[in-house]
Amino acid sequence: MSSTYGERFRLTIFGQSHAPAIGVTMEGLPAGVPVDLDRLQQFLDRRAPGQSRITTSRKEPDAPEFVSGLVEGRTCGAPVTAIIRNTNTRSGDYANLRDCPRPGHADYPAQVKYGGYQDVAGGGHFSGRLTAPLCIAGGIALQLLEKLGITVAAHIQSIGPVDDGRFDLAGVDAAQLQALLRKPFPVLRDEAGDEMKAAILAAKSDLDSLGGVIECAAVGVPAGWGDPMFGGMENRIAQMVFGIPAIRGIEFGLGFPAARLTGSRHNDAYYMDGDTVKTRTNHHGGILGGITTGMPVVFRAAVKPTASIARRQESVSLSEQRDAPLEIHGRHDPCIVPRAVPVVEAAMAIALLDAYFCAGTNTTPDAPWL
Amino acid sequence: MSSTYGERFRLTIFGQSHAPAIGVTMEGLPAGVPVDLDRLQQFLDRRAPGQSRITTSRKEPDAPEFVSGLVEGRTCGAPVTAIIRNTNTRSGDYANLRDCPRPGHADYPAQVKYGGYQDVAGGGHFSGRLTAPLCIAGGIALQLLEKLGITVAAHIQSIGPVDDGRFDLAGVDAAQLQALLRKPFPVLRDEAGDEMKAAILAAKSDLDSLGGVIECAAVGVPAGWGDPMFGGMENRIAQMVFGIPAIRGIEFGLGFPAARLTGSRHNDAYYMDGDTVKTRTNHHGGILGGITTGMPVVFRAAVKPTASIARRQESVSLSEQRDAPLEIHGRHDPCIVPRAVPVVEAAMAIALLDAYFCAGTNTTPDAPWL
Amino acid sequence: MSSTYGERFRLTIFGQSHAPAIGVTMEGLPAGVPVDLDRLQQFLDRRAPGQSRITTSRKEPDAPEFVSGLVEGRTCGAPVTAIIRNTNTRSGDYANLRDCPRPGHADYPAQVKYGGYQDVAGGGHFSGRLTAPLCIAGGIALQLLEKLGITVAAHIQSIGPVDDGRFDLAGVDAAQLQALLRKPFPVLRDEAGDEMKAAILAAKSDLDSLGGVIECAAVGVPAGWGDPMFGGMENRIAQMVFGIPAIRGIEFGLGFPAARLTGSRHNDAYYMDGDTVKTRTNHHGGILGGITTGMPVVFRAAVKPTASIARRQESVSLSEQRDAPLEIHGRHDPCIVPRAVPVVEAAMAIALLDAYFCAGTNTTPDAPWL
Amino acid sequence: MSSTYGERFRLTIFGQSHAPAIGVTMEGLPAGVPVDLDRLQQFLDRRAPGQSRITTSRKEPDAPEFVSGLVEGRTCGAPVTAIIRNTNTRSGDYANLRDCPRPGHADYPAQVKYGGYQDVAGGGHFSGRLTAPLCIAGGIALQLLEKLGITVAAHIQSIGPVDDGRFDLAGVDAAQLQALLRKPFPVLRDEAGDEMKAAILAAKSDLDSLGGVIECAAVGVPAGWGDPMFGGMENRIAQMVFGIPAIRGIEFGLGFPAARLTGSRHNDAYYMDGDTVKTRTNHHGGILGGITTGMPVVFRAAVKPTASIARRQESVSLSEQRDAPLEIHGRHDPCIVPRAVPVVEAAMAIALLDAYFCAGTNTTPDAPWL
């Protein structure tokens, strides 16, 4: 189904931008998991809008209410549902969109698919606002992963032409990731961050928008998670990450540049680090044959420039079957990349946690049949 | 589950490189679908090894036997299972791999995951040979899509440093794709193809290997296929494509370069072409909000260089927990990109057909409740 | 997953008896489906407690709030989530149950499964109260099925020793079912209903409880729904019906008595009724090989007597590992059968609607490949 | 999908009665599981036809070939596919069935569903022959369950009017079940078995057929398997058991008779047996709230009389839309109940094993978050 993800940690995201609420229903969390609601709120706040001049002026607290599944701060084994009320809605802004689709948005294909019955207000179920419940699930997943010794963090690798550089694939570690998590604008080089913010403000004043690339890493993931073929970690992460609006590509490890190397340069040599098997380089991004190797799991996701721009654009009138210009009003981020960083971390965490739960039936030393 | 894909056209791929057989079990094909076995065989032959100096010398006919689901050349509504016998196996080549994992292969993580019980011969279930049953399913899917007016074809965009250029995203059409399908070495510019072949042979004589990028397009896909969030066409295609060994990245439409454009340049303007809604450019690659727009669906997949190279490499002895050099023998492709082209087409076709079947419950003009 | 049902009409039921809310998240409803909320409320009211002396005194309005998926009274194609606030909770009644499990309830196995972290208040996620969101989904399904010409209704076949008789399997029709739906106490013979009510009140005054059998029929279901093997209509209905607490058995058509007949007496002879194929008897209950035949679909479900009784019972102290008597306080139905009637109808409707959506990919006269 | 079952131990059954082969593809078996092929063959032989005068004269060895997933007698973590060649086919016997459907068979609804493209020979995918691959999966599941200390066996509770009595629900133990497994005609009282055989032969000579009831028990199942609502053990077992052709009903524990008891008599009192929680009676059949309690899991399944009888029956000509008599030729069991006994055991075993694998993500004492 369209808005459901996962095998053993399964979540369904519901809601539309201007519905009474958005939210998530989660199944598969073991009973007894403590959920630290304060830390979850801090995580959600990283995604929330209205924090600075480079984000949309729509302000909503994004405070989830857990209506089921938690008892005295712990999961009880039943499905966990959390909702976030939509309070700051201005649906009048969107009245024209059923007839005149916005370039770069889902308006037109949704019109065809749903025969005109889709919720057009604010992009409906396609709105970036739906990444808030994704972050509820992801924030909980991050809390569990932390207890397994796993740290997940992402940085803004580029915005428009400004480049922050990449992680050292083999060398990225928990300390570096935790430092990133403390930054309000997570980049490896703060000067790059300043240039990025300047570029966003320039685009905004130009009634335009920018995209970028987010690089995400998880360290501490043990070897052996993931499955061959369609259940590989790349498949799982990619299926999740493309659920974030505006993502146009994903690459693991060295990614597309791997296609230009020779095998002798691309292959990652094994060595023993004490009793741990490691690779000297990490072009493989911590995944081989779909299964984690114990090296850092690293991927990059390309985010297209925000489709909503205040400039006049070419569109059509679907009812009159003629070309028609369009001007979009409303409140929009000139660049969603900064707010997408925790969403990408949430995506990584959800995919990892599900893979962890799936790995439970594999052979173990004490399996009664061995 | 790991080796299963799809919601309404569901397939499970089974087999190991040196097991008695490999094959596929498919569910969800409607009854009455004619399967042209001759054309299917021609499609499988495009993937088969042993065709020229640039592929492995392992020769196997890859002739599927349909043991269930077909009656007099048509599907009967029951699951369709086809098997390919493994005849040309040389399992002695692989005895050492349980202890000394090959760089770039799944040997090590599989050893951890399966506790040493995995089938190591020829890569077992991780072998590229498993793309043969994928092509059985894909070849059937292509036959159905053809009847829906859809053409799917891919070309080799690059091998190592040699670049063939990209499709004209908005202009690619069925005629261009059909011309590609007739080429034994599918490139847009044949001179690029000659350079690629030379590069492959040079790598081979250098005991090395090359990777590349494959670009795949589908034209004729109507608007309205795919679902929001995790059921989007990108999610579906990516989950399938990463099931092909050696894929390291995927991008849709303009892909990663989209991250460097401004919104005003990236957004695809709508216009009416007669009574059809089209976009002047196709940076979105035929998909918005996860749903097809009617424009060509285009993606690119990065293939890493073949991990099996004849050079001495650094590895470890897992039993002795020490570094140990490794030399790989056996027969391997110096570059799998040419043989991966039909596999990528198969992947696109399977994802499209499943999405088509899934689109069946959406609103239609004659739904009794409208 | 435990609380999720369905392939194409998929619902997840969440909530616990004394959580902030209970509810349901539904996927797969086509866009544009009108939902008549007044009729839905009437349907829910049939299940609601507190209506008479034969039900529990816990009174709650069971008024659903649709927080997503509906726009101006119609589905919009996005997941539909409805919640019912729990207002009348008295969790103090249940404090002892973590240590001293109630006979006939899930307390003990839940304690083992969830390690003591389950929500014990009011039975938590195991409470019969969770049938309210099931009825939300079922009530919507019934509205769609009605537009497809299908009528679903159930009657109380027996309560304790009082028997109402069975449907005429081949003769039951829409008029008879609609008459049942108008009855506050749905029985075929009203005098049997009076006896049943008297038996319930007698059990109540005896601090005891009663069970019964519910027989449910659907007429107007066309031939061809359902799938062979594990996707058969019996499999689908049974998987749903056993999701209702207290169900101990299900049988289709003639059911268990079929095991005592000879084939010549059990087989249902075919005949033509105009241009419609019918069977003279309907021992098969409208399903052969898992697929509907066009005859009425009929099943019976056995409901055990309410496990909560006010009498002193034998139990154990789990913490002290010794036998311990138990007295249950709280408000309980002496017989849940009357309130379970709409729940069983909801179950039938959900299973049918899902099968209808699944049937969409089968061969049709205008399939392009035929 | 129709012929797929299971969440974590997932199997797809393929093949038709007269296709080249029938078989099963299984996913989710951990790596390293030894499969004793001799014992598996012995289990399959219990189901095989042609053993005596009371079964069909179609003789086939039912010898599975494992084409994938096994290496040196153990699972390797990849999907396991086994096929059984159909050798003794006589498809000419069934030519007429596309037009003139057999009463009690799936011919007519399959004709509607598949538009005439279904495989009619021998019942195609609906044939009882498809229970052979079910027994392959079930036989392997039984071998794993045995290592977990679980014994599964069924007896023929009744055939036609002859009754063998029921298990002592609370008292049935492994020794009693193992004794049953050694009997060629598994009944509690051998004199009942003799009467049953006589009844079958009488029905056969009368050109008629008989049905019956099979009662199945599993002992040694620990408390805590299964999930609430739709993932309960009853739901799981019922969804599997209705995949066996001819099953018309299923009941757990006391079953339908529970509907006639009062709560005070039906509730099973808890007591401590050493440090084990047990119930004095076992009306609940080892399952409460969908979760196992540690008491024997017991269900009963009703098998209708064989639909294929040699007598002239009433049917219709679908092409001519008129009533038409029908005489069925071919080889059929006058009563399938004896051969269905191992199939029912296989069904129980598959459902249990899948539930066991699903239970893996629940809370455990050493979970890092507790």
Automatic annotation (TrEMBL), chains A, B, C, D:
Cofactor annotation: FMNH2
Annotated PROSITE patterns: CHORISMATE_SYNTHASE_3
GO CC term (a single one): cytosol
Gene Ontology biological-process annotations: amino acid biosynthetic process; aromatic amino acid family biosynthetic process; chorismate biosynthetic process
SUPFAM superfamilies: Chorismate synthase, AroC
Pfam families referenced in this protein's UniProt entry, alphabetically: Chorismate_synt (PF01264)
InterPro entries registered for this protein in UniProt: Chorismate_synth, Chorismate_synth_AroC_sf, Chorismate_synthase_CS
Listed name of the protein: Chorismate synthase
Annotated source species: Candidatus Avoscillospira stercorigallinarum
Origin organism lineage: Bacteria, Bacillati, Bacillota, Clostridia, Eubacteriales
Protein encoded by which gene: aroC
